[in-house]
């Protein structure tokens, strides 16, 4: 970590904060969600990270980190790692639940995502979860 990087306490841990302009943050979210919808979960993960690290808003940070973990779950799925899928789905669920109030601002239906994750955890092995937009 560079000495001039700021930290934000999120989920009981110090996380990096690298501010970016709001327009760039929105563009990163849109690009990340588009990559996710196209099935490029690794790219979605990478594109969403600057948006997550670029805001001080804790609910938005939680929701974005949840989306990153959701993408990571399906990276594990593509690698035939069901334990990695389940672990990341549980992590995604926790983060999305913590940030559900930011769903409209981020542009995703957090409640629908939580229901889809719960369904997938109860019945493993289905297709990747679709992210519904608001």
Short description:
With 134 residues, the chain is mainly alpha-helical. The protein has 6 helices and 2 strands, in the order E-E-H-H-H-H-H-H.
Annotated CATH topology: Hyaluronidase domain-like
> Rg to the nearest angstrom?
14 Å
| Overall morphology | globular
Unreliable stretches covering 5 or more consecutive residues: none
CATH architecture: Orthogonal Bundle
Major sheet: arrangement of strands: 1-2
Largest sheet: 2 strands, antiparallel
| Number of E-state strands | 2
Distance between the termini: 35 Å
Number of domains: 1
Total of DSSP H or I helical runs spanning 4+ residues: 6
* Percentage of residues in DSSP E strands: 5-15%
Structural classification = mainly alpha
Mean pLDDT: 93
Q: Which class in CATH terms?
A: Mainly Alpha
Helix-strand pattern: EEHHHHHH
CATH homologous superfamily heading: TTHA0068-like
The percent range for helix content is 55-70%
